[in-house]
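From the pipeline queue, job 12 of 40. The input is one protein chain; the requested action is below.

Action: predict structure.
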Amino acid sequence: MDIRKLQRVVVDALEDVKAQNIKVFNTIGLSDMFDRVVLASGTSNRQTRALAYRVAQQVKEAGGHVVSVEGADAGDWVLVDLGDLVVHVMQPAIRDYYGLEEIWGGKPVKMKLGDSGAKRIVAHASSDAPPPVQPRPAAKTTRESQRARKRTAAPARKRSTAQQARRSTPAKGPAKRAAARKRARTV
């Protein structure tokens, strides 16, 4: 199937299920594996799976070949491999985090919308040069973010003198800990 016809089938299928922020990128100079990348967002896990299913279904009906569909179990990020074209259907948070537009965004493809007939640029391009890449802030690890939430959510509690004494004495070994427990029980 011709790449232009294939990308038209994919974009129409995505529009049928109300995909958001559809972008098509030409990757001929960037990758030998495929010629186009299509990025689209869904509002929920169910919608991202429905978008990927619809794309696969429409491509098969148009006479194309679906190589594989990955990530449909979770639904956060579903990849549909169509050989010369790869479709990434993601939720907006996942899409923002991974920033695939920065990787593949060098050569956007302009397309017309199928339903309305109005011309809309699917991926914006001001010049042939890729857009400047802005540094992204480093993401906190889950432990750091949990600690930060605990610090801001709950006020510090005062410890009793027994708790402070237990915290201040280092653990020396199993025998000494057992002896300390025995003393604590007798007191």
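Job complete. The longest strand covers residues 20-26.
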